């Protein structure tokens, strides 16, 4: 179970925005003893705010290719 010391999990699960928040937290910080449901990740993919490495890993696992590009570095 994801550690939520600052939020009431039962209240978050009632709304779509709360479910998205919980899913983001599970992906970014680790799911604990729970499993992350692939169907939920696919459903909310465009709404998830994920760290870049986690986002690339999930893209590779789900779709078999990385869609997100790295920010370009400016050369002086």
Q: Your description of this structure?
A:
With 76 residues, the protein is mainly alpha-helical. Helices cover 49% and strands 0% of the residues. The chain has helices at residues 9-12, 16-29, 38-44, 52-63. The protein has one domain. The longest helix is centred in the N-terminal third of the chain and has 14 residues, at 16-29.
Features of this protein?
mainly alpha; single chain
Topology of this structure?
Layout: H1 9-12, H2 16-29, H3 38-44, H4 52-63
How many separate structural domains?
1
Mean pLDDT: 85
**What's the helix count?**
4
Low-confidence stretches: none
Percent of residues in β-strands: under 5%
Q: Quick one: overall form?
A: globular
The largest pleated sheet is described as: none
Strand pairing plus helix content: what structural class? Answer: mainly alpha
Beginning-to-end CA distance, first to last residue: 47 Å
Tell me the total number of β-strands: 0
Radius of gyration: 14 Å
Order of helices and strands: HHHH
Helix content: 40-55%
